[in-house]
Structure formats: C-alpha cells, structure tokens
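Backbone-to-sequence.
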C-alpha cells in the first residue's frame, strides 16, 4: 500500500545523509551574491553592479572562497535539525575566515579591482547572518512542523490501547495439563526466586491456582514483593504462602531459607535481563546470573530438592552480550547436576510487555507523542507472553526426557514492524514512518536471536507447543568451577578489569587450560 507523501520527512529523512542540506547550496549562493548587491547599494546607492566587468574576477574569487569554506565545513551533509550552538559557532568562524581569505586572495590576484572595503564588510555581515539565519529558520520551521504533525500529548488520548501479542502475532493458545499439575503439587513445597519480577509474579499467580502444599516466594526487591503479596493475599488458596525478602547471591541467607522451608521444587527466575546495562556491569551480571545459579543449584542438591528449573534466554545461544554469556555459563552448570535431582533449563524469547522490555518503552513514547527509537531496520526477536512462558515452565515439570525445553514461538518479529503496528493502534491517522527513528544497534545486541545451539538435537514432546533439546554436557563441573574462580578474581573492583572480564565472559569456552569437554562429574 502506498503511503501519503510527506515533504518534510521525504527530504529531511534521517536515513538520507544530510537530508535537504545539499540543496541549500543554491540559496546560499544567492545569499552570497545578495550580500554583494547590498554592499553595492549602501556604497553607491544602486542595486546594480555597474562595474561588473571590472570586478568579475574579484567577485568570482570572493564567491568561490565562500563556497569552498562552506563545503569543507560539512554544512551540506548536516541536517539543520542537528545544528546546535557548537555547529553554528563553527560555521560562523569559517565564514569569518572566508571573508578574510577572500579579501587576501582578491588583493593578491587583482589588487587594482578590489571592491571597496565598505562593500566587503557589508557582504561579510549579510553572508554571516543569511547563511546561519537560514539554518536557524529551517530548524525552527521543521521542529514546529514535527510538533504539528505529531500526535498530541497523552492528555488528548481517551485511553491507551490494550495491546496483546495475539493482536499482532497469530498463535494458538497454549493449554497445560492442570489436573496432572495439581496432583504433582498437592504435597510439594515450591520455592520461586525473582518472584516479584514479570515472569516470577505471573508464575506465582499460576502456581496459586494449582494449589501446592506450600508456596515460598523470594525476591530481593521489597517494592516488588510488597505488591505481589497484596495481589496474591486476596486470592483463594488452601496452602501455606510465604513471602521472603532475600538475595539469591547470598549463599548463607538462601541456605538458611532452604533449611527452614525444605522446598521440593525450585523455580529459579531471578536474573538481570537488560543487555546494554549488563554490558556496562559485567561483574554484577556474572554474580547475579551465573554465580547465584551455581550457589542455588548446589544448595538444592544439599537439601534434597526433587526438581530444579532454571529460566534462561535465547540470548544464551551463541551469545554476543554479557547477559547472554552469563546465562550460557549458568545453563552449562545446571547440566552438571547429579541424576538424583531432576534439573532442567527452560529457554525463552523476549517476554511481551515485561518490565523494561521494548513494548512498555514504546508505549511510554507513544503516550507522550514521541517518535519510537528502533535500533535497526532488520532487528528481529522471538516473542512470547508471560502467561505462555509460565505455562511452559509448569508443563515441563511433568517431563523427564530432555535437559532443555523451548516454546514454539513461530517466526521472529521485526521490531520496526512491531513499532509500526503500535503507532497505527495509538494514532490511526498518523503515518507510522513519521513516528520511527533509527538510533543504531546498542552494545551486545544481535540483529537476530537463535533458539538452539548447533550441537543441540530438537525433539518433539507430548505437548504440541514445547520442544525438547538434547546435547552432550559441554564441560564438567570441575572445569566450570575452575573457570568461575578465575572470573570471580576479575570481578574485584580493585583489579579494574571490567573490560578484561567482559572479554573473558564472551570467549566461546572456559579457559584453555580447562576447556577440554568432559561428561558431567
């Protein structure tokens, strides 16, 4: 379908270097010539240049020097909307330099026909004001046009559209065996880490409906746990419900908690999840995503936990980010658990609408009438809802055949397309392209994510929407623990080794001296 032509966007498109700027060469040339006319008018009282034959070489030199100065300044590759005080000062300085140079060149080449000084001064002032004033006027006009064409602020919105993933991506609803799960949980204590997060809170709500014997909900955030307790205390539940503020990174605290509660099932959802933020804080990512999982798995073994489920991410497959690398290390470690404890990993795509994810961010921008920042036209992601993700976690508790499970999420969704759909739902009468700006890929981001490693074999399961993955255990527990010991040394702030830690995390395998694949020990 063709889109309405928008002159402002078409010519000043950020995807076209400089937008309209190259076309400003003609009006700039007019300003330069007009400056000569004004100087002549003030000096001789007429707009005409009667001495044009005498001054032809001088005028050519003057105009040429100015054009060269303007072109070399990069002015014609710069969008007027991107010109700020520094750019105006830089261009103004070049114009003053061009005025001086034009006089010097004219004096050297044709001193007999040098235009009067008063005329040259006037020309310099008119050129300075005209060239910079034209950019200032264009910038003001374009900003006004953008505000006028953009949607009004949220005060004019009757209501925010309730957008669901099913509105954008066709997918059959996922059903789970609730009867079997109720039987499974009827005499078991379930402990959930990260219970106050997007996944943890939804998982806690679904668990409540399945009526486990005891439900222990753990989170380090007082705010999140407080709101979760207020939400769940109002619901009908026959078992014991405990809300515990605890940091999964604190092995001593978690050991005391598990000694007291004696969980049969541990669902580990606590993690840092934001890629750019973790690129800047690799030590915290390693402590929270990898080492907390290591401690929790060990404690689960010590306390005779029956089932341990680790919630991972597709970013752990061929990772290019600190977040993905720390989750991959945790996945590897979970696979070294002894057969006496059933341990599994559930690997997710992006959770639609979760805290800090792209959808709430886009909705905040749209509610304020701002453009949506898209990192790259080809950026795409797999999406699932928190409801689907939690059903996947619960259903896999009934499986015993595969160490890793993923959901059939269909084809990945292009983020630009998703942004366009949101714009159309918020502002049906606005061209979606006018509300999207490309801001460039952020550190650690891939254009596309993968769901499986090359060495993983994909299997069907008894559930049509869930796939099981098998692969050899890549490293022994001893190998991984030796590697973790070296990484922990780099986490010491006194070492100042943040970039070294980041590079070591992103290496494809543990240290060479410990990198020979073994079976789990």
């Amino acid at each position: 379908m063709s889109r309405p032509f928008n002159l402002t966007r078409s010519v000043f498109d950020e995807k076209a270097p400089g937008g309209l700027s190259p076309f400003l060469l003609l009006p700039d040339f007019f300003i330069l010539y007009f400056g000569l006319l004004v100087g002549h008018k003030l000096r001789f009282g007429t707009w005409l240049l009667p001495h044009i034959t005498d001054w032809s070489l001088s005028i050519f030199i003057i105009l040429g020097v100015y054009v060269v100065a303007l072109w070399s300044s990069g002015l014609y590759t710069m969008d007027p909307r991107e010109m700020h005080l520094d750019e105006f000062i830089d261009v103004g300085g070049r114009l003053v330099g061009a005025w001086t140079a034009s006089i010097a060149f004219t004096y050297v080449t044709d001193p007999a026909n040098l235009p009067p000084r008063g005329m040259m001064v006037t020309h310099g002032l008119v050129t300075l004001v005209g060239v910079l004033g034209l950019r200032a006027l264009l910038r003001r006009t374009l900003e006004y046009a953008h505000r006028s064409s953009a949607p009004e602020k949220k005060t004019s919105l009757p209501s925010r559209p309730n957008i669901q993933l099913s509105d954008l991506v066709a997918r059959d609803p996922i059903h789970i065996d609730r009867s079997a799960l109720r039987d499974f949980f009827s005499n078991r204590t379930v402990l959930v880490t990260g219970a106050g997060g997007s996944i943890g809170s939804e998982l806690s709500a679904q668990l409540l409906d399945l009526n486990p014997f005891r439900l222990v909900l753990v989170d380090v955030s007082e705010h999140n746990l407080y709101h979760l307790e207020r939400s769940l205390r109002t619901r009908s539940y026959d078992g014991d419900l405990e809300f515990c503020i605890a940091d999964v990174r604190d092995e001593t605290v978690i050991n005391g908690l598990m000694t007291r509660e004696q969980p049969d099932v541990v669902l580990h959802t606590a993690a840092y999840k934001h890629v750019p933020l973790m690129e800047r804080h690799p030590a915290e990512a390693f402590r929270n995503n990898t080492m907390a999982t290591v401690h929790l798995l060990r404690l689960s073994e010590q306390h005779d936990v029956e089932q341990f489920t680790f919630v991972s991410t597709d970013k752990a497959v061929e990772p290019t980010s600190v977040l993905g690398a720390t989750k991959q290390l945790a996945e590897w470690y979970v696979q070294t658990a002894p057969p006496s404890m059933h341990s599994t990993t559930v690997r997710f795509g992006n959770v639609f609408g979760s805290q800090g994810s792209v959808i709430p961010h886009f909705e905040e921008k749209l509610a304020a009438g701002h453009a949506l920042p898209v990192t790259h036209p080809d950026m795409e992601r797999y999406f699932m809802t928190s409801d689907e993700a939690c059903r996947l976690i619960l259903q896999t508790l009934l499986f015993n055949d595969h160490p890793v499970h993923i959901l059939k999420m269909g084809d990945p969704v292009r983020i630009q397309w998703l942004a366009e759909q949101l714009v159309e739902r918020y502002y049906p009468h606005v061209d979606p392209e006018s509300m999207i700006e490309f801001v460039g890929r952020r550190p650690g981001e891939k254009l596309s994510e993968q769901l499986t490693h090359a060495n993983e074999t994909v299997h069907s399961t008894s559930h049509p929407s869930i796939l099981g993955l098998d692969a050899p255990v890549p490293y022994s527990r001893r190998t991984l623990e030796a590697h973790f010991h070296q990484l922990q040394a780099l986490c010491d702030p006194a070492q100042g080794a943040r970039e070294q830690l980041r590079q070591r995390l992103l290496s494809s395998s543990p240290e060479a001296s410990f990198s020979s694949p073994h079976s789990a020990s």
